[in-house]
């Protein structure tokens, strides 16, 4: 053994070759933590001390190669100043350069995921052999940074600037075939042949059949682009990427700048440029928040995994109520491999549900995500029925009938008599209390909420709602099924609106107040979209549907009358009573016309102002900052109340639910991170300045105490 550490070992293979293996003890994956980087430095020194090595293979003993740097260290490290970060990265560059400069050919055997720092590690070697099914990529821009360990330097020299920009700016994970096509790897083989193929490549290089030194020199030299080519590649890419990423996500464009500025330089100078831009990006609020979201997502996955260990996978599911929502649930289940019954009381509804599932699968075929055969297989997993005849072996049912408590209660009671005694029943309700729906059930312990967001196939969140009598088994089974469907489940406790809708309607309350004070709803939309929301509140209400919004608002008002009940009519009631339902009937705050793709396109409707006019109590001149404050303070305060009331267990889950459920701007990190970024004390002062607007703006005692003690929601 040449070297043995806790994450890396180096051993001679007996034929002049050595093997450096990543195998992080106590972990199922390899990652490049600070400790592992230090070990790698020692391992490389041990290699340099050997005089008889003629070739090196780098490999992994895990199912993955290296998933990247240890992101749990990022907040601590990125809290240092820019000079520290530049120096830190240059030290890693020196280490990676030492590997690249070893006096013999080198090859990496890529057996699984090789992302971020793991991908940058394998770029140092002369050759790369990749197993079928493995993926490589540089996803750093998704965390608000750029590749900082040579990705912006080596990848463009290996696959060309245009391909490298696509990989880096997009943060994509690239399959073996795609990597081979652009020249990122030299060969793709079956996993069982990976080791043999890598060693064969080394043997050919050692025998002089492949000029490994020429390959290495090309990778270390400046990019071969003349000034005209350079301008066309980089300036065009910056314009396109900036338009796609938007103003709130600077890292993709900064990555292109790093490639561009280093294109004419040698390796070390280009790495200095990369290190400086990396450090600048690491210090941004966007990076801080996106790293926080990654860590929160890991927490949610860990909690879901704990539930999954308690129960078996759901082998057969059912959905009650076909239509668009039922068809969406059926599609999602079937497309991810779980057979599902789809029941309704009339044939037309069943056909609508099947049509919805078929349409969604057809789009997957068009995009070449699946084959026609796979589409047929998925459709075969959906079994439409008008009866309960085959429900005896259904393990979990999703009730998705009309949002009416009496109808839901009747359907649930009927269903309970048709399924096995240990079957789990869930309700896809967006507002109705799970505890109240369970009142007429014989086995309320087997019942909980499973709230999907519309459209089901796009929205990643599923709220799993625990009623007063819901058992741990029911929650665990529902979380497990949500995971099987490819969703992110977050467990919340029962209350009107649960978590997401309970938080959303105070946001709409802020909008209602702005309209009554003469704010132009179109301006409010533009301000909030500029703030980062995918759509402003008026547009969002049109998408949700004014009828749905009025119903949900009534539920919220009954549940929280102190701050959500309004005695007089609001703009929601006025729009609904005028028959303006939003996108569903092409008229709401805006009118909707079909675009070339047949999708609803928003157009201004001046007649809306006439409807709103009688509601205006007084006209106030409001700045963009005042509009943002009046919209965001109620949403943030309600999120705080949900955390304080125990509706959601952690700040991380609360924030992720808002990001996944209603499109809270990810770069702002969620409502509670937004408060932290402002400072709890500053937020309390802002809310207090708006207190005359009503109880939606009144600060809780606990939050005021947090402000006084200088506390935060996140450490």
TrEMBL record:
SUPFAM superfamilies: 6-phosphogluconate dehydrogenase C-terminal domain-like (SSF48179), ClpP/crotonase (SSF52096), NAD(P)-binding Rossmann-fold domains (SSF51735)
All copies of domain 3-hydroxyacyl-CoA dehydrogenase NAD binding, residue ranges: 316-495
Pathway: Lipid metabolism; fatty acid beta-oxidation
Catalytic activity of the protein: a (3S)-3-hydroxyacyl-CoA + NAD(+) = a 3-oxoacyl-CoA + NADH + H(+)
Alphabetical keyword list: Fatty acid metabolism, Isomerase, Lipid degradation, Lipid metabolism, Lyase, Multifunctional enzyme, NAD, Oxidoreductase
Every 3-hydroxyacyl-CoA dehydrogenase C-terminal domain range: 497-592
Pfam families hit by this protein: 3HCDH, 3HCDH_N, ECH_1
InterPro entries xrefs: 3-OHacyl-CoA_DH_CS, 3-OHacyl-CoA_DH_NAD-bd, 3HC_DH_C, 6-PGluconate_DH-like_C_sf, ClpP/crotonase-like_dom_sf, Enoyl-CoA_hyd/isom_CS, Enoyl-CoA_hydra/iso, FA_oxidation_alpha_subunit
Enzyme Commission numbers on file: 4.2.1.17
PROSITE patterns per record: 3HCDH (PS00067), ENOYL_COA_HYDRATASE (PS00166)
The keyword Membrane belongs to this UniProt entry's keyword annotation: no
Family: In the N-terminal section; belongs to the enoyl-CoA hydratase/isomerase family. In the central section; belongs to the 3-hydroxyacyl-CoA dehydrogenase family.
PANTHER family given in the database record: TRIFUNCTIONAL ENZYME SUBUNIT ALPHA, TRIFUNCTIONAL ENZYME SUBUNIT ALPHA, MITOCHONDRIAL
Name of the protein in its database record: enoyl-CoA hydratase
Naturally occurring in which organism (per UniProt): Marinospirillum alkalitolerans
Encoding gene (name): fadB
């Amino acid at each position: 053994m040449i070297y043995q550490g806790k994450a890396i070992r180096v051993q001679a293979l007996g034929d002049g070759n050595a093997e450096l293996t990543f195998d992080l003890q106590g972990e199922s994956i390899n990652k490049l933590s600070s400790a592992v980087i230090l070990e790698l430095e020692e391992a490389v020194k041990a290699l340099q001390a050997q005089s008889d090595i003629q070739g090196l293979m780098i490999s992994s003993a895990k199912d993955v190669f290296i998933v990247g740097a240890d992101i749990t260290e990022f907040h601590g490290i990125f809290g240092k100043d820019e000079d520290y970060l530049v120096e830190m990265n240059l030290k890693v560059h020196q280490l990676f350069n030492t590997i690249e400069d070893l006096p013999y050919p080198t090859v990496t055997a890529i057996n699984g995921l090789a992302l971020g720092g793991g991908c940058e590690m394998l770029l140092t070697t002369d050759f790369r052999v990749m197993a079928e099914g493995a993926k490589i990529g540089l996803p750093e821009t998704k965390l608000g940074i750029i590749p900082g360990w040579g990705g912006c330097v080596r990848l463009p020299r290996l696959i060309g600037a245009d391909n490298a920009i696509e990989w880096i700016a997009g943060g994509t994970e690239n399959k073996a075939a795609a990597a081979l096509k652009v020249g990122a790897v030299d060969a793709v083989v079956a996993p069982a042949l990976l080791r043999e193929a890598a060693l064969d490549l080394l043997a050919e290089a050692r025998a002089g059949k492949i000029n490994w030194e020429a390959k290495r020199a090309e990778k270390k030299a400046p990019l071969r682009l003349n000034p005209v080519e350079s301008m066309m590649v980089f300036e065009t890419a910056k314009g396109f990427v900036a338009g796609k990423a938007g103003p709130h996500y600077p890292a993709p464009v900064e990555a292109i700048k790093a490639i561009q500025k280093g294109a004419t330089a040698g390796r070390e100078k280009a790495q200095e440029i990369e290190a400086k831009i990396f450090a600048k990006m690491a210090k941004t609020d966007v990076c801080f928040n996106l790293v926080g979201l990654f860590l929160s997502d890991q927490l949610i996955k860990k909690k879901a995994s704990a539930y999954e260990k308690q129960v078996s996978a759901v082998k057969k599911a059912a959905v009650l109520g076909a239509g668009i929502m039922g068809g969406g649930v059926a599609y999602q289940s079937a497309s991810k491999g779980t057979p599902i019954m789809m029941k309704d009381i009339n044939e037309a509804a069943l056909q609508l549900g099947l049509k919805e599932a078929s349409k969604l699968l057809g789009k997957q075929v068009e995009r070449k995500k699946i084959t026609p055969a796979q589409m047929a297989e998925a459709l075969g997993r959906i079994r439409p029925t008008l009866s309960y005849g085959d429900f005896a072996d259904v393990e979990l049912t999703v009730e998705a009938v009309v949002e009416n408590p009496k109808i839901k209660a009747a359907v649930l009671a009927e269903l309970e008599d048709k399924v096995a005694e240990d079957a789990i029943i869930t309700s896809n309700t967006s507002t109705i209390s799970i505890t109240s729906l369970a009142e007429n059930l014989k086995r309320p312990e087997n019942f909980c909420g499973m709230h999907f967001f519309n459209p089901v196939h796009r929205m990643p969140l599923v709220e799993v709602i625990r009623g007063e009598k819901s058992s741990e088994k029911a929650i665990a089974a529902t979380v497990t099924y949500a995971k099987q469907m490819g969703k992110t489940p977050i467990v919340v406790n029962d209350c009107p609106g649960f978590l997401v809708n309970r938080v959303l309607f105070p946001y709409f309350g802020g909008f209602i107040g702005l309209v009554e004070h003469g704010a132009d709803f179109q301006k409010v939309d533009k301000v909030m979209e500029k703030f980062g929301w995918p759509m402003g509140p008026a547009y969002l209400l049109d998408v949700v549907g004014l009828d749905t919004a009025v119903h949900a608002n009534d539920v919220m008002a009954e549940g929280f009358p102190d701050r959500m009940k309004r005695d007089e009519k609001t703009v929601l009631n006025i729009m609904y009573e005028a028959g303006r339902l939003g996108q569903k009937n092409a008229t709401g705050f805006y009118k909707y016309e079909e675009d070339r793709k047949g999708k609803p396109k928003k157009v201004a409707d001046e007649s809306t102002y006439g409807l709103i006019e009688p509601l205006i109590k007084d006209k106030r001149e409001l700045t963009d900052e005042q509009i943002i404050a009046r919209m965001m303070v109620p949403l943030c305060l309600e999120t705080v109340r949900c955390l304080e009331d125990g509706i959601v267990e952690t700040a991380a889950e609360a924030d992720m639910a808002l990001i996944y459920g209603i499109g809270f701007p990810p770069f702002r990190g969620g409502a509670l991170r937004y408060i932290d970024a402002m400072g709890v004390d500053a937020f309390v002062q802002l809310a207090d300045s708006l207190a005359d607007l009503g109880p939606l703006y009144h600060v809780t005692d606990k939050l005021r105490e947090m402000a006084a003690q200088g506390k935060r929601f996140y450490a």
